Amino acid sequence: MRHILCIALALVCAACGAHRGDSAPATPAAMAAKVLADGYPQPVELLCEADSAIIASDGFRISIPADGRATVTAPDGRGLLYGAYALLRMHTAGTDTVGADVVDNPAYALRMLNHWDNLDGTVERGYAGRSIWQWDLLPDSISPQIAEYGSRCAAVGINAAVLNNVNASPRMLDAAHLQKVKAVADALRPYGMQVWLSVNFATPMALDSLPTADPLSPAVAGWWQRKADEIYSLIPDFGGFLVKANSEGQPGPCDYGRSHARGANMLAEALAPHGGKVIWRAFVYSPADADRAKQAYLEFQPLDGQFAPNVIVQVKNGPIDFQPREPYSPLFGAMPSTPQAVEFQVTQEYLGHSNHLAYLAPMWTEFFDYVDPASLTAVAGVANTGDSHYLTGTPAADLNWYAFGRLAWNPRLTPAAIADEWMDAHVFVPGKAVPDSVRTSVRGMLLASREAVVDYMMPLGLHHLFAFGHHYGPEPWCDVPGARPDWLPRYYHRADRVGIGFDRSSAGSNAVAQYPDSLRRLFDNVDTCPEQFLLWFHHVPWTRRMHSGRTLWQELCAAYTRGVDSVDGFARTWAAARPYVRPELYDAVAADLRTQARDARWWRDACLQYFAGFSGMPLPAGVPEPGHDLDSLRRISLPITNFESPSDSLLNKFR
Ligand code: GCW
């Protein structure tokens, strides 16, 4: 049966939940009607009906027949909502013309943000203020930012949010907090969003004094079943649990000699009657193996086939931890009988927090160049939101939220196409003609920005040269007495008189063996290993000739210098674009670029001077003399927590 939902809010139909009225829309279909009424210049027909081309849930069709009246068709309200936003995008791009007939099905049913929000309002690795959930106000009062958040997620097709940190407080599941979660779920439902929670595996012990959290204990399993029943009685469309277990001090099934699969399956059984799922993270690195990059594979690959059908194993894109560049994690493709999700990090923990311009779509599409999107079940991104202005602290960080959502919908979109959409909608002054040269140079700046960060922080496969704790500035020399070796930069760069880099070849840790044969051979051979991963996989002599003809030392110096030069170039590009850019956005990005230029020099001077102590070689011609000597750089210690990005004044005071 065909249900005409709305023509410019004129008709009413219950089938997909549309309604007319002045109150806030209560369903995705009603939201679709409102989005179009507010943002589209013509009446639009919303049709709730099956269409054989709409093969995935949330998919939609947009057609504009000869009479010029656009129709959005979808089998359900969420599809209408995503179709409504797609029509707005087409309008901005000028492609909503007669004859248009677009069918768009999402690649994944689950496109989720993972919030690392704590109950005290802080956000782990969050650089955009405090938690937007405003836990203290809930459940009686809902921050208006939640609606803003919901609409920005819906605009790019994000349909699920894990509300709290994977380092989860057991209190998340107490009765009072579940009321707060219900309030957020109710507020996000009209935006098509499903709410999930991170859970602490030992919650039954902490909340109800059970003597154990052993997944094989019937009392423990019963506790989780009752908790799942309680949650679903409040939130019937609750998504499920995200779990960080036996990682960085979190409790888990291994505490009782049980496998990750046993732990995940016990929770999965509790959720299954309600249609819920468990997402179990593979971010583990016990000190058992000499190479942290091998850990997740060693622990999880043998468990392939042992997880319940409603468990998804979520793997970070790279084998270590969201570095500016990592090869993909070899766990992808190595568990063919287990649904897998990729975890990207939208928040810039390791890419200059919200101070640096770093458009991350090129990093994520680089991952998809290696990992077939079709092999994944879901895509997750660690959110970069908070209660600050723009919800992301800085407008440029909004681009990464936007790009994440668009790629989770369609991983084959190009970073350039996504940047264009975002620039048209958010960067340029509406209605003003923008010269092609300006558009091209701003796009070019965005596309080059992540590579610039790689260059001035960790080129050629270097990784984890960060300061201990806050991961903002450089500390390749960092030494913390008693710290785990794999928390210290020297473990990763291994610089010595001979060379630099981590030997993960077959002659070293043999991490290369975890990759499929063709890649194993490519990475294993120092002559064929892509130079962007060279020092990830090999310990390379300072004097080795690179493809450019330079020695490794010269190449390293050239990369750090190029990174600084790129940021200086961004500032020039941005200044030239000023007449066409929205003023508030202009000022914010210009300020970020000034900070970034100083930080890039800090990285270059610190790393090159420190590594020169090993190479014993002078800086090649063309590399500027450092602005600060190594001793003074070594003394820099930023007093920031895991919850904040350093302000300009703080940076200027301490460096
Ligand atoms: O990236 C690292 C972060 C931790 C984080 C952890 C994880 C939530 O430094 O802050 O903890 O990974 O992903 O679990």
Structure notes:
The longest helix is centred in the last third of the chain and has 33 residues, at 583-615. Helix 6 (218-234) crosses helix 7 (260-271). The termini are far apart. Helix 7 (260-271) links the parallel strand 9 and strand 10 (277-281). The strands form 3 sheets. An 8-stranded parallel beta barrel has the order 6-7-8-9-10-11-12-13. The protein has helices at 28-39, 77-93, 144-156, 175-188, 203-208, 218-234, 260-271, 295-300, 361-370, 395-409, 415-427, 436-457, 489-493, 517-524, 534-537, 552-577, 583-615, 630-634, 648-654, and strands at 3-7, 45-48, 60-63, 71-74, 101-104, 110-114, 160-162, 194-199, 240-243, 277-281, 311-316, 340-345, 378-382, 499-500, 540-541. The chain is an alpha/beta fold. Mean pLDDT is 95; it is low at 6-14. 4-O-methyl-beta-D-glucopyranuronic acid binds at residues 116, 124-125, 165-167, 244, 248, 283, 321-322, 349, 642.
Distinctive features:
655 residues, alpha/beta, 8-stranded parallel β-barrel, 19 helices, 15 strands, 37% helix, binds 4-O-methyl-beta-D-glucopyranuronic acid
> Main sheet, how many strands, which sense, barrel?
8 strands, parallel, barrel
**Global geometry:** globular
Radius of gyration, in angstroms, nearest whole number: 25 Å
Task: Give the termini separation.
Answer: 67 Å
Low-confidence runs of at least 5 consecutive residues: 6-14
Report the portion of residues in β strands. Answer: 5-15%
Number of strands: 15
Tell me the helix content: 25-40%
Q: Counting H and I runs of at least 4 residues, what is the number of helices?
A: 19
What ligand species are in this complex?
4-O-methyl-beta-D-glucopyranuronic acid
Whole-number mean pLDDT: 95
The main sheet orders its strands as 6-7-8-9-10-11-12-13
Class based on secondary structure composition and strand pairing? alpha/beta
